[in-house]
Amino acid sequence: MIEVQSLTRLYGKNAAVDDVSFTIGNHEIVGLLGHNGAGKTTIMKMLSGYLEPTRGSIIIDGISLSNDARSAQKHLGYLPENLPIYPEMMVADYLDYVATLKGIPAVKRLGAVREVLSATDLTQQALDPISILSRGYRQRVGVAQAILGEPNLLILDEPTNGLDPNQTEHMRQLIKRLARRTTIILSTHIMQEVDAVCSRVLMLRNGRLALDQNLTDLHNSKTLLLRASAGAPSLAAYLEQLADVASLQSFVAADGLMHFDIHLNPNANIDTAANSVAHCVIQAGAELYQLQVSAHDLDQVFREVYDNGN
């Protein structure tokens, strides 16, 4: 669906985006994360054709953006963070205007507008001036204009920015419905948003791609948390001899128990390793109080990516 190779954007001598490459398949929902200035908006502008890259290539649905931008743009919809809508226009009139700009034929225009009004639950607001809509409904208008023409790629920049919890949940459900027929790139500062709707995450740091990982794999931590009775000095030695163990840290906690953070090798099977750890506790003559996989959430990964980059 999307092939990005060595994408670079320079402003003078400063690289806003520096040699970024990735591929996104059909119907994926991919979260684009990074601190302010990491290059997220610049990448989205280049993907939409609004901004030309200094170097690199973008291919959308087999069409090179640099060779045939107009054809490639017919396959995408874009919701910028600050959508330039016209508050004095009625919702339906605004969407008809956008449909005209997108080149949707006049005979198909009414049907296209009706379809996106239904998809975004805006039918009841079709004749309302945009100026009287709540922030949540304005965001829906933004999504509606982005999905006009049934694009194969949808780029959403902070789609839940400023929404209340109820509006946010409605937007999440809408994004999931849209993913049944389109590929979505979602940029946000809210980690819960990515966890709620995305299947994969791209993290940018200083204009470079620092992480590209499936969320399921990301959450599958390779660290075991062990709490066992103190007074068994041989336990650490037994654990260090296990083939699945890459390293471990231990300390005596305030509760008087030994706490171990056991880091496993990348290819280790969690269940097999946990069984081996339990046997070590028995061999060492200690008592087992707790053995579980250590939680590995997106916030933690984000901090690790940025801490390791300093």
Radius of gyration: 25 Å
User: Which sequence of strands runs across the widest sheet?
Assistant: 6-7-8-3-9-10
Named CATH topology of the largest domain: Rossmann fold
What is the tally of helical segments?
11
Question: So, CATH architecture of the largest domain?
Answer: 3-Layer(aba) Sandwich
Blueprint (SSEs and pairs):
Layout: E1 2-11, E2 14-24, E3 29-33, H1 40-48, E4 55-60, E5 63-64, H2 69-73, E6 76-79, H3 91-101, H4 106-119, H5 135-147, E7 153-157, H6 165-178, E8 183-187, H7 191-197, E9 200-205, E10 208-214, H8 215-219, E11 223-229, H9 234-240, E12 245-252, E13 257-264, H10 270-283, E14 288-293, H11 298-308
Parallel strand pairs: 3-8, 3-9, 6-7, 7-8
Antiparallel strand pairs: 1-2, 1-4, 4-5, 9-10, 11-13, 11-14, 12-13
Helix pairs in contact: 3-4, 4-5
